[in-house]
Design brief:
mainly alpha; 1% strand
């Protein structure tokens, strides 16, 4: 305790900055209801201010073991979000939770003979859907109503098993840890709501463990990986059953292996692990497999092969081929088929022919992509399910975070300097990925000839975040004060997500 008291005295300016900035963030988030009944809001602010201050001091104290810091901070923030966020309020959680139940029942693969819909027995999923009434999540204060509903606490054993539901066909390995949480809730015969909470908690543990291992693995670039692992957009997702937490964790791990190989001789084991990470990601969302192309940025001197670029190209082609064979022709998003690719008005061939015959539509899509930059950065599209506009104060919060991230990317030392040409190659990769995603969504999700790209979300671009500092970093001397300021910022914005959720839902 005395040690932390000394740390507090030495770092009081950072703690004070954290508390004041958090209070400033909260002001535009308040609604009349929060002001009329402020007791819970005040209590929450005090608790999160104290917790955040402790996490800042803990991070400063253990900065030389950043992997431990990352694990602890992610666990604290993630578990809190688990209990704060109402069930199914996080993007697509309801359909991912259905697949968790499926896996928990021992069903690793989804058999779909009709190729149009998939149904399984889901003993308490239907009841959860009824209790939590998904369509009311745009209503402020819904969290309190849910927790006061006695049916949410009914023992799992009391729920009949004659319900059917639609389920995603995503690979089972993305849901194993969440399924363990559901199994534990069933074994202990806890209340129905605990099936959701424990599935979330086990997902948080998995995410924290992968990120911690990635930070420990990489010889440099540790702070950058810690920073992006707690980007506000991922916090609700890692605290849910959404498979995007799995994807982003392995994006961070693949980045760690890339950095390791950039700084050392490329070993077969490390190269294999890098490609396994990319394969696991690609089998969930095939477009993300192009992340593997960053392997071409490795220095030639680190490659021990006689013809290094030929070997890397062969590895990439093998990776893409294996992914395509396993995936069996599905182009993207192994969500419920009827929700995406089997709409009668959706046709990749038909959409392609429409674009060929209407070239002006191509320019319009580019225009939508440019407009999307503002929406993603400022409005944070689909920050929480599909009612982002309901979150008061989100725009100020997003602008501040964007500025913080850009300044961090430019000025915080990476200790790994890419050549000018490699930085340019990364920037070109960013541009192609960004605009390519718009065209891909238009081809596979949108009705033929529709006038606007539908379903685009900011989280689809999360895989680019770990690479941004590599492309834009300007070498600067590292100082302890910079570390402490970065810790403060990371925890401040994570705490802001928690408070935004509390003020909206309670």
């Amino acid at each position: 305790m005395n040690e932390y008291y000394g740390l507090l005295l030495d770092n009081k300016r950072f703690v004070l900055l954290y508390i004041v900035a958090l209070f400033v963030f909260i002001i535009p988030m308040l609604s009349p209801r929060n002001i009329d009944f402020p007791n819970f809001e005040i209590f929450s602010f005090v608790c999160i201010a104290i917790l955040g201050s402790f996490l800042i001091l803990f991070s400063v104290k253990n900065k030389n073991s950043l992997h431990k810091v990352a694990f602890a901070v992610i666990m604290f923030i993630g578990v809190l979000m688990t209990f704060i966020a109402p069930p199914f309020s996080i993007p697509d959680e309801y359909i991912h939770f259905a697949r968790v139940l499926h896996v928990a029942g021992g069903n690793l693969f989804v058999m779909d003979s009709s190729k149009s819909s998939v149904f399984i027995n889901g003993f308490h999923y239907k009841l959860l859907y009824y209790i939590f009434d998904l369509y009311k999540f745009h209503v402020r204060g819904i969290g309190s109503l849910l927790l006061n509903n006695p049916r949410a606490w009914a023992p799992i054993s009391s729920v009949p098993e004659n319900y059917v539901l639609r389920v995603t066909t995503t690979p089972f390995y993305t849901y194993v840890f969440s399924a363990i949480g559901v199994l534990l809730a069933k074994i202990l015969d806890l209340g129905v709501i605990w099936a959701v909470w424990l599935s979330r908690i086990f997902n948080v543990v998995f995410y924290a463990a992968i990120v911690s291992f990635a930070i420990k693995k990489t010889p440099v670039y540790k702070m950058q990986l810690f920073f992006v692992s707690l980007t506000p957009l991922i916090i609700p997702i890692l605290s849910s059953s959404n498979y995007d937490a799995f994807i982003f964790a392995f994006i961070i791990l693949a980045t760690a292996y890339f950095i390791y190989m950039y700084k050392n001789k490329v070993g077969s084991k490390d190269l294999l692990m890098f490609f396994i990470c990319c394969l696991l990601i690609g089998l969930i969302k095939p477009p993300f497999i192009i992340f593997a192309l960053i392997i071409l940025l490795l220095p030639k001197k680190n490659l021990s092969y006689k013809h290094p670029w030929v070997m890397l190209a062969a590895y990439l082609l093998l990776l893409f081929a294996v992914s395509a064979i396993i995936f069996k022709g599905n182009v993207m998003f192994t969500q419920t088929p009827s929700a995406v690719s089997t709409k009668p008005t959706v046709s990749i061939v038909g959409q392609t022919m429409f674009l060929i015959n209407n070239p002006l539509r191509i320019l319009e899509i580019f225009g939508e992509a440019f407009e999307g930059l503002y929406n993603f950065i400022v409005n944070g599209y689909y920050f929480y399910e599909y009612r982002t506009s309901a979150f008061k104060g989100l725009q100020l919060y997003n602008i501040c975070y964007f500025v913080f991230f850009i300044l961090f990317s430019i000025y915080y030392p990476t200790r790994i300097q890419l050549s000018k040409h490699k930085k340019e190659a990364l920037i070109i990769f960013f541009i192609l990925f960004y605009f390519g995603m718009f065209f891909l969504i238009y081809l596979i999700w949108c009705s033929v000839g529709i006038g606007k790209v539908r379903g685009m979300q900011a989280r689809y671009f999360l895989p680019l975040m770990p690479l941004v500092p590599l492309a834009f970093n300007s070498p600067k001397p590292e100082t302890d004060k910079m570390d402490n300021l970065v810790f403060t910022g990371i925890i401040l914005f994570a705490a802001g997500v928690l408070m935004m959720c509390i003020l909206h839902f309670y």
